[in-house]
Write a structure and sequence with these properties.
Layout: E1 5-7, H1 12-22, E2 26-29, H2 35-40, E3 48-51, E4 61-64, E5 67-70, H3 76-81, H4 83-88, H5 90-97, H6 102-107, H7 110-116, H8 123-129, E6 133-138, E7 142-147, E8 152-154, E9 157-158, E10 165-172, E11 179-185, E12 196-204, E13 210-218, H9 228-234, H10 241-255, H11 265-281
Parallel strand pairs: 1-3, 2-3
Antiparallel strand pairs: 4-5, 5-10, 6-7, 6-10, 8-9, 11-12, 12-13
Helix pairs in contact: 9-10, 10-11
The chain binds flavin-adenine dinucleotide.
Length: 286
């Protein structure tokens, strides 16, 4: 195992100075549940490591008008236990509850899940389905906000600059009566990574037609994105059986031949229909 210089800043400003000075050789560490195995296996060889867990500004959940701000070092357990998230973003509670076992949920952070850029991440696709935005800070560019959907370029590769720190996850509270569902398919082992997960957020108008719909699978693609073909078929129309079948065909058509082997497509199709049904039958956000 390599030797690293270890930085433990107490403020975002100090962290940004270090990132700006150390450049490519410095890696940020939060809970370490992804980074420590990568360091141990020498998959990455930084010359220094910057611990952000001691920076108070980076943790916690707050309400800013109609937006919820989640600090990147907020753990999955904290998200699951938050009354604010339970009330306004219950999809995130479901996604966070599906991560690993209790030890990983106590240690792993939402920021780490996003910044690691794993195709098998469970919380990143839910943040994309919630139209989340990411606040990034660096000395060079100051503060910029990007959609979570644009965060990951390729597996394990974000679009962030090396000197940028994720400082906040910003998600608008779901309007009342918005329905949602999340489902993860994995082996029975609690620590297992997902075979697939699907996050759905939807709203029906007074005639029972889709007025909002966001479908985001995880693990089924290299990078989590909305399934626009299926969304287009359903938007503005009522969820009749034949239309749901058409949307399910479009859902797997969008996935076919890209990232997952063809034999998984029928499973993806039936999980999609099940999650959509659960969202339609579930109660809406109050
Ligand atoms: C046994 C086990 C089971 C797991 N099960 C699951 C699972 O079921 N579902 C799932 O989604 N994941 C799972 N994971 C993966 C992992 O726990 C999560 O991805 C977790 O959210 C990572 O958070 P962390 O704080 O530990 O990140 P770290 O390991 O500290 O960091 C991960 C990456 O993000 C970067 N980073 C972290 N914070 C920031 C920031 N604020 N700004 C910029 N870059 C940053 C780091 O440099 C690193 O590249 C599992 C891991 C283990 C070991």
């Amino acid at each position: 195992m390599q030797n690293y210089q270890f930085h433990g800043p107490r403020t975002v400003g100090e962290a940004l100075n270090i990132l700006s000075e150390r450049g490519d050789g410095c890696r940020i560490i939060a809970g370490g549940t992804d980074l420590i195995p990568a360091l141990r296996n020498e998959d990455i060889l930084p010359d220094s490591v910057l611990n952000i867990l001691e920076i108070d500004e980076l943790t916690g959940i707050s309400e800013e008008g109609d937006t919820i701000r989640i600090g990147p070092t907020t753990t999955f357990t904290e998200i699951i236990q938050s009354q604010v998230i339970k009330r306004s973003l219950p999809l995130l509670v479901e996604a966070a509850s599906s991560v690993g076992g209790p030890t990983i949920r106590n240690r792993g952070t939402i920021g780490g899940n996003i910044c690691n850029g794993s195709p098998a991440a469970d919380v990143l696709p839910a943040v994309v389905a919630l139209d989340g935005e990411l606040e990034l800070q660096s000395k060079a560019l100051g503060t910029r906000i990007i959609p979570a959907a644009e965060a990951v370029e390729a597996p394990y590769q974000t679009r962030f600059n090396r000197d940028e720190l994720l400082t906040g996850i910003l998600i608008k509270k779901l309007p009342s009566e918005t329905r949602y569902a999340f489902e993860k398919l994995a082996s029975r082992n609690a620590m297992a990574r997902a075979y697939m997960n699907i996050s759905i957020v939807l709203k029906l108008d007074e005639k029972g037609a889709f007025s909002d719909l966001r479908i985001v699978p995880g693990t089924l693609e290299a990078v989590a994105r909305r399934m626009s073909a299926a969304e287009k078929i359903l938007m503005g129309r009522q969820p009749e059986d034949s239309l749901v079948e058409e949307a399910a065909d479009a859902f797997v058509g969008d996935l076919a031949g890209v990232w997952i082997p063809d034999y998984k497509l029928p499973v993806a199709r039936s999980v999609f229909k099940r999650v959509l049904k659960r969202a339609l039958n579930g109660s809406g956000v109050e």
